[in-house]
């Protein structure tokens, strides 16, 4: 695993392991069974809906594949970066929606509800990344970005006295920074293209 992934992923291990346990036990104690059921359904459905929502990215990725034959690295890079940004935009939109879903999260700053929101916002992408090979750095880096930005939003809600409208620009800024790092380091350079090439060859 690249050093950059190791540096950022290790602190998330504790959060990813503890947050669902604490949230579920706490909400069961509060009798929030319906909310837990809705959250489970949301995770299952979002995994499927994410795959459908990625279809528009093919409009960018397919031309990128044909540009490979012309060895036009610049246009290929543009196609991959825009196609990848669509995926990151979907993850960002899902996270913002989840954290804005309940008033207990933003208004009441209820810790179990905030932790549940973190779990729901990251679980679908973590599950999909777990199905990828270890060599697919693109998928794993996207998951890392999702978890880091969601963790940052979680911490801001808990500790910062900010409105959601003030936290969203910071949240999006973190995603943009990580995405730029991924592009410059080559972690996102070939993942989407290779994935689509395998699909077209099947």
N/C terminus separation: 28 Å
What structural class do the secondary elements suggest?
Answer: mainly alpha
Tally of DSSP β-strands: 0
Order of helices and strands: HHHHHHHHH
Arithmetic mean pLDDT: 79
Taking Cα atoms only, what radius of gyration do you get, to the nearest Å? Answer: 18 Å
Rough outline: globular
Q: Into how many domains do the coordinates divide?
A: 1
Report helical residue fraction. over 70%
Low-confidence stretches: 190-202
What does this molecule look like?
By secondary structure, the protein is mainly alpha-helical. It has one domain (15-201). The chain is built from nine helices and no strands. It has helices spanning 3-29, 33-53, 58-68, 73-99, 103-106, 111-130, 137-159, 164-185, 191-201. The longest helix has 27 residues, at 3-29. 32% of the residues are buried. The model is unreliable at 190-202 (pLDDT under 50).
Furnish the topology, listing elements before pairings.
Elements: H1 3-29, H2 33-53, H3 58-68, H4 73-99, H5 103-106, H6 111-130, H7 137-159, H8 164-185, H9 191-201
């Amino acid at each position: 695993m690249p050093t950059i992934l190791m540096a950022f992923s290790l602190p998330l291990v504790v959060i990813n392991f503890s947050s669902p346990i604490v949230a579920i036990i706490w909400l069961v104690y509060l009798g929030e069974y319906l909310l837990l059921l809705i959250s489970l359904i949301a995770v299952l459905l979002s995994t499927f809906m994410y795959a459908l929502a990625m279809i528009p990215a093919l409009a960018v990725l397919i031309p990128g594949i044909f540009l490979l034959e012309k060895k036009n690295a610049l246009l290929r890079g543009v196609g991959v970066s825009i196609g990848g940004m669509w995926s990151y935009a979907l993850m960002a939109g899902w996270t913002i929606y989840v954290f804005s879903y309940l008033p207990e999260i933003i208004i009441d700053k209820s810790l179990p509800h905030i932790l549940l929101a973190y779990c729901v916002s990251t679980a679908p992408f973590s599950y999909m990344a777990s199905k990828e090979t270890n060599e697919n750095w693109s998928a794993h880096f996207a998951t890392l970005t999702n978890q880091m930005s969601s963790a940052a939003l979680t911490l801001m809600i808990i500790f910062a006295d900010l409105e959601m409208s003030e936290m969203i620009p910071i949240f999006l800024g973190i995603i943009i920074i990580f995405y730029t790092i991924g592009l410059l380091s080559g972690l996102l350079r070939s993942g989407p293209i290779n994935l689509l090439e395998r699909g077209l060859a099947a």
